[in-house]
Amino acid sequence: IPEIALAGRSNVGKSSFINRMIQRKNLARTSSKPGKTQTLNFYIINDKFHFVDVPGYGYAKVSKKERAKWGRMMEEYFAERDQIKATALIIDIRHKPTEDDKLMYDYLKHFELPVMVIATKMDKIKKGQRHKQVKMVREVLEMEEEDTLIPFSAETGEGKDVAWRTMLSHLNM
Ligand code: GDP
């Protein structure tokens, strides 16, 4: 079954994103604590594809040894899973992407998979700031032309249709 890998700092709104995409209130709940996620969570969306939660975020601040360990785990994880068709990086549109967000974007790019950047909590941004914020995120992440940035809100449902269309096209569905 094809998979889409989801990455995002804890508390960024990852489970809210999944829940909104599939219109559930509570299905996608991660029990992970910040910096402690070491297990893989699979969310069975339907019989057509799965979301996979990419674990362990916050590595800009961890030791070299820890990061190397995490890196090996990730390599193994991605190397074994040729069913991963695309990745989505969830970021909070209110803030400048952190060093971790940037590292994660680069990391996902290195697997040569399409990266969708989901800029969530869009409802918290004033109308007049939207364009500027979106542009800033693209610049800070140094996003590649072919990668999509999708303004999103789990609160209002903004961006849901675009996110679905983009995902389905990566899944060739
Ligand atoms: P996770 O740890 O990444 O899974 O984050 P959650 O999905 O649990 O969300 C963290 C917090 O942000 C919760 O209080 C959510 O209600 C809130 N949140 C998530 N997405 C949005 C959004 O699009 N808009 C607003 N206003 N709040 C959001």
Summarize the structure.
This protein has 173 residues and is an alpha/beta fold.
Task: List descriptors.
173 residues; alpha/beta; Rossmann fold; 6-stranded mixed beta sheet; 5 helices; 6 strands; 34% helix; 19% strand; globular; binds guanosine-5'-diphosphate
User: Which residue ranges are poorly predicted, with pLDDT under 50 across at least 5 consecutive positions?
Assistant: 28-38
CATH topology: Rossmann fold
- Hetero compounds: guanosine-5'-diphosphate
Q: Which sheet architecture does the biggest sheet show?
A: 6 strands, mixed
Assembly status: single chain
Number of strands: 6
The fraction of residues in strands falls at 15-25%
Find the structural class using helix and strand composition: alpha/beta
Distance between the ends: 12 Å
CATH superfamily: P-loop containing nucleotide triphosphate hydrolases
Can you tell me the CATH class?
Answer: Alpha Beta
Shape: globular
Q: What's the helix count?
A: 5
Percent helix among the residues?
25-40%
Radius of gyration from the CA trace?
15 Å
N-to-C series of helices and strands: EHEEHEHEHEH
Mean pLDDT: 84
Can you list the strand order of the major beta sheet?
2-3-1-4-5-6
Layout of strands and helices, then pairs:
Layout: E1 3-8, H1 14-22, E2 41-44, E3 50-53, H2 64-80, E4 84-92, H3 99-109, E5 115-120, H4 130-140, E6 148-151, H5 160-170
Parallel strand pairs: 1-3, 1-4, 4-5, 5-6
Antiparallel strand pairs: 2-3
The protein binds guanosine-5'-diphosphate.
The site of guanosine-5'-diphosphate (GDP) has 16 residues, from helix 1.
